[in-house]
Amino acid sequence: MSAATPSSSHSPAAAASPANASQEVAPSLSPYDQAILDYLRARGHHDAEKAFLQEVVEGRTPDDKTKPPEEIGKDEFIRTLAVFAQKNSRPGENQLKDSGTVLQELTSMGNPSAIQNLIASIGAVGSEEVIAADPTDREEGFRELEAWVDGSLDMYRPEFRPILFPIFCHFYLDLIQKGFKDAAQKFYSTFSGSLLASHSATLHHLSTLLLPAHVQNDELAQRFMNEKYAIKMSRSGLSLLVGWLTEAFGGEAMGSGAGFVGEQGKRGRVAVMAVVNNHLSFQMTSTNPTAVSPNAWEESTGLLSSLIPQASGSTTNLTNPQAFNTGKGDLKLGPAPISEDLRTETERVIREQALLDREPVPYDIQMTRTNIPQGLVAPTEADLLPHPPTFKTIDIEREVSAVRDARKRIRLEPSALNNIDPNSSQATLQRSRALPSICAYTLHDVTEGSPCMTFSQDTSLMAAGFAESYIRIWNLKGDKLRGFRSDFQASSVKDVASLQKIREKKGSTTRKLIGHSGPVYSVAFDPICGSAAPPKYLLSGSADATVRLWSMDTLTNVVAYRGHENPVWDVKWSPMGIYFATGSRDRTARLWSTDRTTCLRIYAGHLSDVDCVQFHPNSLYLATGSSDWTARLWDVQRGTSVRVFIGHQAPVSCMAMSPDGRYLATAGEDLAINLWDLGSGKRIKKMTGHNSSIYSLSFSAESSLLVSGGADWTVRCWDVKGAGGLKTKAGENGVVEAVNRGSRNEETQGTSADLLATFPTKRTPITNVQFTPRNLCLAGGVYLSPEQR
């Protein structure tokens, strides 16, 4: 509407007579103001005409006389006039719903020629958009939808709940885009509580978008706007949903809400239907809802079209991850072979040590070689990454130590707790068979924070990275850390004794390694020595986008690997040493070799940060977890994705591979641990019980037990072989319940039946858990004082 108005110094007579005022101001009115004035006068709206003239006449300042009139668009003008007109034949229905009706009705109103000419030049526009701009419609629509889902039958509720999250996100983004900031914040605070348990990270991110420009420039928001959110649902469930949306009935229990009633309720239904029709994609299943696990409905849901890799040469986006996984064929998941020369030499050393130790039963190298499960294919030496053609003494010592560890390993059998009365005399004995011993190391007085921690396989060293850009090493056996001096001559080294003489004379049980220029997010000891000897090298990844290799002999930095463009979140060694992998904020994972300063492979495909990486035990595959809620399995040599795992509802924070090579465990910010079958790419089960972020996972040597540590100050043990599912009431008085009592989040999210035990700390978030070769569990974290948050 025109902002150009006459001067405020006018005569009272002119103001009293609209006709006179109209004649006075007519020369300075814009065509649109004049058209509105003629329309109001022709329709007999004298009060509106008087108010309009008063606004036009009195609202102009002297400076405004020289300004050109500001005009609104034709579409905006028609929206101002055409909002609602009731049909005589169908009371309550908007006659101006579509553009054709708007123009027809306005044309038949006997408007002046100026209005008629304006109407003739206006393009297609309807008034439904104006009605939909009411922010209360979305609030009313979501309230009724949530009440219907919560009140639906028990057999349908698990498959209906996943639709709440995408509809919530679209309603919030729509309100922000239309400028209803206060209404959007009220909508968020009212309805986000029920979704925070599974979508806390995403909802927190959306809550930071407060302006239309934020939505336009945010990648996640644009994915919601441009991609369809896949929902898995049964045929009967979808028919109930459609029936309720169209007729306001179907599937709900008594007292589950009044449904869409009244004019506001009807508009709320239209808002829900608009999201369902335009932004949701339903994947139909003919399976009976009662035959599907409650946790299975959320699997393979989300913005899938950009998450699943496209086949080479294909232009269509897949929405079913299982179709992609099946198309990639079988994987070689068996154990890596050992060379015949190394095997022969190892067996000779084992026999000699057995004679010296007078062992009644000689050790067998087969004790370290897992039997290949039926259906798995073992790789050949030709399939492995290039490695030195000859073995060294340390390789023999590593294999001999592995045999000794296998012989003396404490075997954990979680199945021993099945059907055991926790109050019986046998409960304590069975718990010792099923649960590991846990040794926890706590760092005190670390005000700046320590994002990462790790232990060497021989349990002699512990390393931690700190936010103040340094690394600290501890000797857990109490020995002093003394590096080699830099002022010695190479000719003076003749034997082991002379080598020890050139070490530093003084030392301590801890040393600080300085070299990074940003917080250190990951550290890893090399696995070449195994449990036979202390490690020779340490890798570290930092916010300065570099990875550094540190020598444990000199306690200095040897190499800096540069290639990532953003902070490096994780670094892991290959089980055979030599190679290592990194994950970064630049959305890529990379393969490196210690003898090259440039990367060998780049694994690109994730849509967000690669937060964690993990090698398969045979080194043929690399698993990556990302903030795009997915995990992927890559062929290390070819650099292609061979499996995609979709099931988390938040970023994937950590992962672990089972020693037998069959399973992948992933943990996300949705506080869930998913167990995947690598061969098929299917999720075996979902395990819940943590109350806060999960930082670390580790499998026992038999792959029968999984241990997790997180920000809820606990270490938790899970039964890998158990059936899973939510805990039933019959088990509430069991062993597990005794340590899980009083958790607020478990009441809302539920605890899995395969949670064997919880070991709480006083106030220590557990940043790392890992098993030793003999099944001792090591855990570590930084004590959080009550003054700290």
TrEMBL record:
The keyword Flavoprotein does not apply. Residues 1-27 are annotated as: Disordered. Its main location: nucleus. GO terms for biological process: transcription initiation at RNA polymerase II promoter. It is found in: Nucleus. The keyword Transmembrane helix does not apply. Residues 133-247 form the TFIID subunit TAF5 NTD2 domain. PROSITE patterns: WD_REPEATS_1, WD_REPEATS_2, WD_REPEATS_REGION. GO terms for molecular function: RNA polymerase II general transcription initiation factor activity. It comes from the Eukaryota. Keywords: Nucleus, Repeat, Transcription, Transcription regulation, WD repeat. Gene3D superfamilies: TFIID subunit TAF5, NTD2 domain (1.25.40.500), YVTN repeat-like/Quinoprotein amine dehydrogenase (2.130.10.10). InterPro entries: LisH, TFIID_NTD2, TFIID_NTD2_sf, WD40/YVTN_repeat-like_dom_sf, WD40_PAC1, WD40_repeat_CS, WD40_repeat_dom_sf, WD40_rpt. Residues 1-22 have a biased composition (Low complexity). Pfam families: LisH, TFIID_NTD2, WD40. WD repeats lie at residues 513-560, 561-602, 603-644, 645-686, 687-728. One of its GO terms (cellular component) is transcription factor TFIID complex. Belongs to the WD repeat TAF5 family. This is TFIID and SAGA subunit. It comes from Ephemerocybe angulata. The lineage of its organism: Eukaryota, Fungi, Dikarya, Basidiomycota, Agaricomycotina.
